[in-house]
Amino acid sequence: MTRQVDHEIVIIGSGFSGIGMGIALRRARRDFVILEKAQEIGGTWRDNRYPGCACDVPSHLYSFSFEPNPYWSRAYATADEIQDYLLYCVEKYQLRDRVQFDTAVQEARYDEGLGIWHLAVGSSDGTMRTITAGSVVLGVGALHDPVLPDIPGLEHFRGELMHTASWDPAATVFGKRVGVIGTGCSGVQVIPPLAEDAAHLTVFQRTPVWVLPKIDPEYPDPLVDAYEKHPALMKAHRAKIKVANELRAVAFTQQPVMLKLASRLALQHLRRAVKDPELRDKLTPEYTMGCKRITMSNTYFPALAREDVTVATDAIVEGDATGLTTADGVHHDLDVLVLATGFDVAGSYRHLNIHGAHGHDLTADWDAGIESYLGVTVPHYPNLFVLLGPNTGLGHTSVLLMIEAQVDLITQLLDERDRRGTSVVTVRPSVVPGFTAEVARRSAKTVWKAGGCNSWYLDEDGSNRVLWPATVIEYEHRVRHPEMVDYEFSGAI
């Protein structure tokens, strides 16, 4: 049988992961295509367009190291500005002709006989076709499959219902009764602008969130000019941010006591903004800071302190045509209901229907317990690579650092496979249990496990399947100096 493929490599997804991988493959002069289910590139920053949407990582660190941007307008970029940066990268590195839009992967199946992948893809008009590839890179990310709350009767609600990840740009809440479910990062950002326009806003809070002041100055033109003319200054600024953020990793993963100072700052921030002791008590977390993702805002607490805003802390028990009822028996009349309820971190992979070697199914395998090696390779899935896979998320700094390190690992594995004259590379199954055990052991000491809260960082069994329990510097070293003995190379080209 002849090993013929449509493309050497297929990348699924065109967010930062997919674009970063595409740039590396273009530089390496490899044949590849990027499959994107939407009509434009962008991933998270294309989809999340709700009012107030912005990044909580400093702008100069939330960009590719090889493509610094002197033109960021402020310390923390908005969603629009980040999307513009990604579009710029696509044009500069001439990737648009490599992207197939309106192309959703329905199934990916590994052919053991030929050593290739068959991908069934569909478009919005119902057209189906098959693409074959030597290798597949999953750049689908973890923040694009919205979680919808399980509220009896919610399907009967007759008002406007929308998730922050599918915001209608034409939507307006002016003069309307608005409800928001969720007070995580998206909720903290969207609540203040909604409070400005709504006739009345009800915030349904399950757990209070730690909120720090947001130091977010606009960058003056002289500083932007200096970064443009002297890239070394911008590089030094980025390095300083990286080091400062890495110190947080020590607090999160080894010394949660270090978070006490930040906790005091957050409580002072709350006391200054909220004078009502009853409301302040509702907004005071009882778990250790960092157990859930820490948020930053200067407008969140003032918004909640408004007379036309209600913070409801009783559980939602029922929805109906006109609103929601909470456990205290109060019915909240609503015209608009906003779901700031986050994402299913594994859902991005389930809908792809990935079938590997020896009858392995990724959904079934990961339902039994998500496992990978360094978050990039999965046993029994030859020539399949994952970007921002299990245990490579971050709670303290920019995930773009992880993406770049993972892209380096993938390119090294592809180069080593070519050097050996083989066509297939896969991680040895024997090395994965040890890595999984290491992650579990190191996670046990972290604030995510010991901080006294439930978060999307942990699965139903309380295991950390999302975050890297160490510094980025350590991760970078491990993936940029891989032990090739951990991988199997087979098959003739």
From TrEMBL:
GO terms for molecular function: flavin adenine dinucleotide binding; N,N-dimethylaniline monooxygenase activity; NADP binding. The keyword Oxidoreductase applies. Keywords: FAD, Flavoprotein, Oxidoreductase. Belongs to the FAD-binding monooxygenase family. This is NAD(P)/FAD-dependent oxidoreductase.
